[in-house]
Amino acid sequence: SADDFLVQTLQATSECAAIDFKASFDPSESPQWVELIKDIVAMANSGGRVILIGLQSEGTLAGTEVSSTMSVDPADVTNKIYKYTDQQFHAFTFRACSKASQQVCAITVKGIDIPIVFTKPGTYAVDASKQKTAFSAGTVYFRHGAKSEPGNSEDLRAFVDRRIETIRTFWMEGIAKVVEAPSGARIAVLPPEVHDSSEPTASPIRLVDDPSAPAYYAMPVDTTHPHRQKEVTQLVNAKLKGKKAITAYDIQCVRKAFDIDSKPSFCYTQKYASPR
User: Fold this and answer.
1) CATH classification of the domain holding 54
2) Residue 61 has pLDDT above 80, yes or no
3) pTM above 0.90?
């Protein structure tokens, strides 16, 4: 799980493609923002994982205060990423962790489906006469071990492989559900919203409290069960056209003989009204 990985990450003694250590981060310093954005984008392009702020490159405590980092608004991070990529990337979270009773900030980054490309250069002043370029426009950054660097053909191949594996896993989970289904089960594809239907070809559903299940909207009872016993008697007699006439008692007998009142598809009983 993500929590288990984070626990293992805090015990790591070196950086890798999925783990990056930063001794500190000052939100008021533009150069540090540019470097952080480069690492977040590179990590997202490489399948994601975590950046730990407050640790040295060997995983030891840096002894720095991370409260200013924890107070950063994630929306500001998204806006700064957008400034250099034209992408509203927000698949990351800031989380406070503890190592040896000292607070560490963990930035968990998720992988993405399409690589993020830098559309503007990330430059900042090193001194009064020199600038440094963290990344150039048109480049796609990936994690190469402990570094965030421009991608190559091998990075693109690995990205495609990860995407294919994600789709394959999704498909296999679906196939497993079909294989494990009991004999006689049917597979039905439902839209996000489900409505009542009187069509014989409609798919039956079961009401559950699962928020991920398709939403169900009931049709008004006036549509599904429009007639009381009185109206049913009148409609049947209208169909008989005088050849024979039935009474409400006849309807009552049918209800009793076939237990109609217990069958929701034929009878709807309201608490303070006549059955319909």
Assistant:
1) 3.30.950
2) yes
3) no
